[in-house]
UniProtKB/TrEMBL annotation:
Membrane topology, from the record: Single-pass membrane protein
Taxonomic placement: Eukaryota, Viridiplantae, Streptophyta, Embryophyta, Tracheophyta
Alphabetical keyword list: Membrane, Transmembrane, Transmembrane helix
Pfam families assigned to the protein according to its UniProt record, in alphabetical order: IRX15_IRX15L_GXM
Protein name listed in UniProt: Polysaccharide biosynthesis domain-containing protein
GO terms of biological process kind: xylan biosynthetic process
Presence of the UniProt keyword Manganese in the record: no
Length: 110
């Protein structure tokens, strides 16, 4: 479910111009994705990061983007991290083959 929510967000952002994406309107969409991801994780007992940690990281990415962002470990929040670093390069390091195979379905993931 979380991947569907984030995929929907990504498809919406592709319809937005770069100038509009960098304004506050898309920032609100990004925060909503973080909130939705947290809600889904709580329902499925898959809590990785608190909303507060996601919010702080998202704000740093917004100020510094585009940037090179290294994430250790793939998870249900992978597409969210990729989306929050709009225009930048997000690389995931993962040793678990099953996670790597799941994320290969998304060509924007590295």
């Amino acid at each position: 479910m979380i991947l569907r929510v984030i995929s929907n967000f990504l498809s919406q952002c592709h319809r937005v111009s770069l100038k509009e994406f960098n304004t506050g309107r898309c920032w609100k969409k990004q925060l909503n994705i973080a909130k939705d991801a947290r809600r889904v994780d709580v329902l499925c007992y898959r809590i990785y990061l608190s909303y507060r940690l996601v919010d702080v990281t998202a704000r740093v990415l917004e100020k510094k983007s585009p940037c090179n962002f290294l994430v250790f470990g793939l998870g249900h929040d992978g597409l969210m991290w990729n989306a929050l670093n709009h225009g930048g390069r997000t690389i995931f390091l993962e040793e678990e083959e099953s996670w790597i195979q799941q994320m290969r379905r998304f060509p924007m993931m590295e």
